[in-house]
């Protein structure tokens, strides 16, 4: 059993991660900015409210004693997309330890930095939707940053090209920097299976200080 802190636990992905981790018997703490957004509090869930999730001292205090910190923050509007990069600095400061005993960090990332063709990111591919570019670029910069960080145990988890509500099948395929597709060339995963894959990674770590991705079979 792990002690897991989920920052952004009220979002589409965050709440599924909370549900999945609790269903497996893990101790889960929701680290949130606004308690009013937690309209449905599952049994066994602990809650810590910190108004500023970009305050390293507040984050460090909120996650103290946990084995894993999951960053599932959502940016919301275009004006807020700098939140992703600011948050990466916050976590680096909050979780940094002089040894390997600090909490592990798993970041809910984006798919735009995955390679759709060898050496070519989806973000740089012809026809990439302009509406998604600001979000994809912000996520890509976060990954670039974490790849320079060697003193925290981070994992960056990119979803498939398409992610949305669905059912939990528990079946998925993983990859590292390349987009994972099915036999028809589609790349999709449900929020529920994404959460399952993330908790699987918590239970059986395979991607320390690297990015991985998952998509439906």
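^ Assign residues to that structure.
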């Amino acid at each position: 059993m792990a002690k897991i802190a989920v920052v952004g636990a009220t979002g589409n992905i965050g709440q599924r991660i909370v549900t999945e981790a609790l269903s497996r018997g893990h101790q889960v703490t929701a680290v949130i900015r606004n308690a009013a957004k937690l309209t449905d509090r599952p049994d066994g869930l602990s809650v810590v409210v910190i108004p500023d999730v970009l305050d390293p001292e507040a984050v460090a205090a909120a996650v103290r004693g946990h084995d894993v910190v999951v960053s599932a923050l959502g940016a919301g509007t275009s004006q807020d997309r700098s939140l992703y990069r600011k948050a990466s600095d916050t976590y680096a400061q909050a979780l940094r330890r002089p040894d390997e005993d600090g909490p592990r960090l798993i970041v809910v990332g984006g798919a735009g930095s995955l390679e759709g063709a060898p050496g070519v990111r989806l973000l740089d591919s012809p026809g990439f939707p302009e509406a998604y570019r600001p979000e994809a670029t912000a996520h890509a910069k976060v990954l670039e940053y974490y790849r320079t960080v060697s003193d925290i145990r981070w994992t960056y988890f990119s979803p498939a090209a398409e992610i949305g509500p669905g059912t939990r099948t528990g079946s998925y395929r993983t990859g590292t920097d390349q987009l994972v597709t099915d036999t028809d060339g589609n790349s999709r995963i449900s929020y529920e299976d994404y959460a399952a894959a993330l908790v699987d990674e918590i239970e059986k770590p395979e991607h320390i200080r690297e990015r991985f991705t998952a998509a439906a079979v």
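The radius of gyration is 16 Å.
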